[in-house]
Amino acid sequence: MKFCLLFNNSIMLKKGRINIMNKEVEDLINEIVWWIPLKNKRNNLRNKLIDIIDDKTKNKYSDEILCYPFNWLKYIDSDNFLVKLKNLIKDLDDESIQTVLYFINRIIKYHRKSDNHLKYMNSKEINDNKFMIEKEDMVLDFEDYQYYNGMKLTNKINMSYKVGQNFSNIHSYELLFNKYMKDIDITDKNILDIGACYGDTSIFLATKTKQIVYSFEPVKKTYNFLLETIELNENKNIIPFNLGISNHIGNSQIYIPTYEGGIDLTSASISNTFNKENAIIENISLTTVDDFVKEKNIEVGFIKVDIEGEEQKFLEGAKNTIIKQRPYMVISIYHNESDFFDIKPIIESYNADYGFKIVKMIPYVGAYEIVLFCYPNNNRAEQSRAEQSSNV
């Protein structure tokens, strides 16, 4: 999901600087400084006040109005919540545990309306956001498309939480790869982009392998944008499929939410049906990862999954691939409370010897884009080498 947001302040150009400031705040600043007789001192104070507001605004989440369903709080208040929490944070690093607890605490305080700090990023998010801003400043914005580091994205649609910043999702994956996969080589293995949407992550992942990125997008209109992105970039190693990924081969209906006459293609879901009366319903075809991998006879090194609440069905249909090939995986877990707490234990039950990190992908968004990064441990390789040595 990339939208369901309200941007509450207007962008105003003032004396060559872009400040995010509404009229009420501007008037208040003028009331504070108007009496200062010397123009230079008056302007200096005005600019200092603007800087203070700008700093606060920079650290503010984009999603001013959050979309936490109330059943999140009911889940947190349930009798077995602490058991679920303990299982989730077991064996996680301190940074992942902080991400989990901060997210849960924000839900509690949001529903109980007790903390104004909910609007602002924490210190880690602020630091990650600096990386995102630096990358955003490197994007060239042409009339029809944006360009960054050899990649192009169309300007026909907005692909990001920030209007006009279509590369934000790519920047978030750059940050993840820099932090956790810098020394990992997957260039000789195939990649699955499950929930490819408009193709932004597909063109980034295509730079990480000499093999093929198989991109799956079930909604026809979104799939057509994916095709356009591939064509715009002249990618030869991305193969798109107009398919959904689930736990069986067959057909289903997918619900595409509408808002005041517009449609949100990024939030189309089979199980998160929103308001069915206002949704567009589309018939789609489904397959499983295990069936696809067997049919194509491929080796998979990395899987990205963002399929709006169908992630557990993905796991059911990918179990053999996960156990036998142990690919690196980035799985969205924020779509519902069961995904958040249960996906990690499900993968642990496969006994495939994975380690885990819980990562906030987009630092300036409060409610969304939390993923489970799954990495295969080296224990199996070490055990295999030990067994070979003992047989010599």
Automatic annotation (TrEMBL):
Pfam families: Methyltransf_21. The keyword Zinc-finger does not apply. Coiled coil: none annotated. Keywords: Methyltransferase, Transferase. One of its GO terms (molecular function) is methyltransferase activity. The keyword Ribonucleoprotein does not apply. Residues 193-355 form the Methyltransferase FkbM domain. GO terms for biological process: methylation. InterPro entries: FkbM_mtfrase (IPR006342), SAM-dependent_MTase (IPR052514), SAM-dependent_MTases_sf (IPR029063). This is FkbM family methyltransferase. It comes from Brachyspira aalborgi.
